[in-house]
Every structure is written in C-alpha cells, then in structure tokens.
C-alpha cells in the first residue's frame, strides 16, 4: 500500500525535525570543551618570583574550589626576558591544554630581543585578573629610611638597585623614578623576584624593585622594609608606606597580570578558560588568599578587552624603552 501524500509530508517533517535535533546536539557537544588531560601552565620566569607566586595561587584556588576536572602543571621556563617561555607557548598552535602567565614585561621583552621572539600578537588572550604594585624595598638594617634618603645618597654617589630582567617592569619603573627624582641608579637585572630578594638580603645591591608577593614573607619576618609604592594610593597592609607622588616624585606604574594561551585554539576553548578564570577570580579564596594577601587590585578583563589593553600599553612601554636606549 502506498503512503498517502499527507503521510509522506508528515514523515518528511518528522525526519527534518530529527535531523535538526541531531545537528543541534552535535553543535552543543562540540561547544562544550573540557580539558581531557593535565594543563601545562607555563611561567616564563624562575621560581620564587611574582609570576611564579601568581601561577601557584591560581592553581591552588582552582584545585581547592574544584573548578576544573584536570590538574595544572606549573612549568617554569625562565630566560631571555621572558621570551623563551612565551615563545614556547606561541610555537604550540592549537594546544588546548597549555596556558601562560602574561604580564607587562612580556610585552616589552620581544621589542628588545627582536626577530625570533614571539609577541602578544602570536598568542590567544584568555583574561586579565589583577593589577600588581611596584615598590622599592631595602634591607631592614639599611641606612636609607625613606625614599628621600635614597635620592640624597644617589646624588652624592652610585647606588645599585636590583630588578627582574632587562627592559621589563622593574627597569621601566626605575627609569620613571630616575627622571622624576633627577638621579641615576645602577640597575642590575636578575631572572626573578626571588633572585632579587636573595641579592638584597646578601648585601649585593642597595635596594630592589619588588611586588608585594615577592617580599611579604621577608617583610613579615622583619628582614626587609618597603620605602615607596608606584601607585596613586597607598596599598593594602602597607598603609605606612607612602606613594612616590606623596614623596614628591610624580609618577605611577600599572603592572597587569593576565593569562594567555597558544594561537589557533578554538573560540570554545577560549570561552572555557575565560569562564574558568572568571569563576576563580570571583571566589572568596582568590580574593583572600591572593589579592588581599599580596595587596593586588582586582581587574578582570575578558580576552578581547585584554588584547586591546595590552596593545594600548605597548605604545606607552615603547616610549620608556626608547628613553632607556633599549630601542632605536
């Protein structure tokens, strides 16, 4: 018996609905990316520095809050003013199980190194999470009690100041200070904030540039003393530490801390990690155990906005590097 025209139309309609449902289900399944193996979390600086502390704080909060089905593996790849680790991620296109800590200095490193070093344009941006602070720190028994003491001594002789890498945040901040105070300091680069602290405590430099995460343990042990912060306002638990502006030296510095990933990953992968970092940054654990403890300001940007923010800062940083004689 042949099917009636009406029956055929009903059958065709049912089949079209079924196919549409299967297609929709396939699209939903494709969009629901989740890591299927451990995630290599690359830190392009040595252990003990601000980026290392940052990465381990992220890992700890994600783990304790059970936000991700897979664990993070911290991989330190220091060297080349952070270009070695950054380039290794840029040379891993399509790797869905790799992330990278990305800070201000990773914008300037490639400008100085030149050809062969990956730039931020070679990465996929996930999110920015916070703004960090820059301070000048001395040993607790240092003869320099205020930032004005540093300036007065520098006008009479040469003082040394340690910082992480060449042409990155610490050296840029140092140049802004030199210009504001009309002095010249001998800048000595190290591979990480941890190495800077070791050099300071060992008496190898007169002072260092450091983020709170790099010196808080030594500060609590009364081994070091911060003298000034490069911010508009005083920070967190260091209410007795004046800003450079308050001290008569008119400059500030914005140090961002974000997350990037390899190029050529799908929008679904970017969305997954972006949502993961948003959940993590909204948690009380992150706010208490990292932001509050190390005195950072929350500053979340999604990947697209973070990319624009980085591009804007690149122009500012390039001018400072030219003033330092590091760019032609």
Characterise this structure:
The longest helix has 27 residues, at 5-31. The protein is α/β, with parallel strands linked by helices. It contains eleven helices and eleven strands. It has two domains: 39-132 and 255-324, Bordetella uptake gene, domain 1 (D-Maltodextrin-Binding Protein, domain 2), CATH 3.40.190.150; 135-229, Periplasmic binding protein-like II (D-Maltodextrin-Binding Protein, domain 2). It has helices at 5-31, 50-64, 83-90, 105-113, 147-156, 169-181, 193-201, 212-220, 267-282, 284-294, 303-324; strands at 39-43, 72-76, 98-103, 124-132, 135-139, 160-164, 186-190, 207-210, 224-229, 255-261, 297-302.
Can you tell me the overall shape? Answer: globular
What characterizes the major β-sheet?
6 strands, mixed
Uncertain parts? 21-30
CATH architecture of the largest domain: 3-Layer(aba) Sandwich
Helix content: 40-55%
Query: Taking Cα atoms only, what radius of gyration do you get, to the nearest Å?
Result: 24 Å
Reading off the top of the CATH hierarchy, the class of the largest domain is best stated as Alpha Beta
What would CATH call the homologous superfamily of the largest domain?
Answer: Bordetella uptake gene, domain 1
């Amino acid at each position: 018996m042949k099917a009636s025209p009406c029956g055929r139309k009903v059958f065709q309609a049912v089949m079209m609905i079924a196919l549409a449902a299967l297609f929709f289900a396939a699209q939903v399944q494709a969009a629901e990316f989740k890591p299927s193996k451990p995630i290599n979390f690359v830190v392009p600086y040595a252990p003990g520095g601000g980026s290392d502390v940052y990465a381990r704080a992220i890992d700890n909060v994600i783990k304790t809050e059970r936000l991700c089905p897979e664990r993070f593996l911290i991989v330190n790849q220091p060297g080349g003013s952070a270009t070695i680790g950054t380039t290794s991620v840029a040379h891993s296109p399509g790797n869905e199980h790799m992330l990278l800590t990305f800070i201000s200095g990773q914008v300037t490193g490639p400008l100085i190194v030149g050809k062969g070093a990956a730039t931020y344009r070679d990465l996929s941006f996930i999110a920015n999470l916070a703004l960090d602070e820059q301070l000048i720190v001395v040993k607790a028994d240092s003869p320099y009690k205020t930032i004005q003491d540093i300036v007065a001594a520098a006008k009479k002789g040469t003082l040394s100041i340690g910082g992480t890498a060449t042409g990155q945040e610490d050296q840029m901040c140092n140049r802004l200070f030199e210009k504001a105070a009309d002095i010249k300091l001998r800048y000595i680069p190290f591979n990480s904030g941890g190495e800077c602290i070791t050099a300071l405590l060992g008496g190898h430099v007169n002072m260092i540039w450091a983020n709170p995460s790099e010196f808080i343990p030594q500060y609590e042990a009364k081994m070091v003393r911060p003298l000034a912060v490069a911010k508009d306002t005083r920070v967190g638990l260091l209410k007795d530490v004046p800003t450079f502006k308050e001290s008569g030296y008119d400059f500030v510095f914005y140090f961002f801390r974000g997350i990037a990933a390899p190029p050529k990953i799908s929008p679904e992968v970017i969305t997954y990690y972006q949502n993961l970092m948003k959940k993590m940054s909204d948690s009380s654990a992150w706010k208490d155990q990292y932001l509050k403890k190390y005195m950072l300001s929350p500053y979340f940007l999604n990947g697209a906005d973070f990319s624009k923010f980085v591009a804007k800062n690149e122009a500012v940083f390039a001018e400072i590097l030219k003033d330092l004689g590091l760019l032609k």
